[in-house]
Amino acid sequence: MSRVCEVSGKGPLTGNRRSHSLRATRRKWNVNLQQVTINGEKKRVSARTLRTLKKKGLI
């Protein structure tokens, strides 16, 4: 199961974790996915996309 929004296609981002001494190790920011029903189908949608859909009146 991938961590990708089924509506917008937004996926995880990568970058560096910085310690106090500024050593860099790789890390990942996952998308805040929520399970919602849209037109009778269950979809995994990011929280930002869900907010936009509610604002536009599509949910």
TrEMBL record:
A GO cellular-component term linked to this record: ribonucleoprotein complex
Protein name as it appears in the record: Large ribosomal subunit protein bL28
Database matches in InterPro entries: Bacterial_rp_bL28, Ribosomal_bL28, Ribosomal_bL28/bL31-like_sf, Ribosomal_bL28_bact-type, Ribosomal_bL28_sf
GO MF annotation, one: structural constituent of ribosome
GO biological process, one term: translation
Assigned keywords, A-Z: Ribonucleoprotein, Ribosomal protein
Lineage, highest ranks first: Bacteria, Bacillati, Bacillota, Erysipelotrichia, Erysipelotrichales
Keyword Ribosomal protein listed: yes
Similarity remark: Belongs to the bacterial ribosomal protein bL28 family.
Listed SUPFAM superfamilies: L28p-like (SSF143800)
Family matches, as Gene3D superfamilies: Ribosomal protein L28/L24
Organism: Floccifex porci
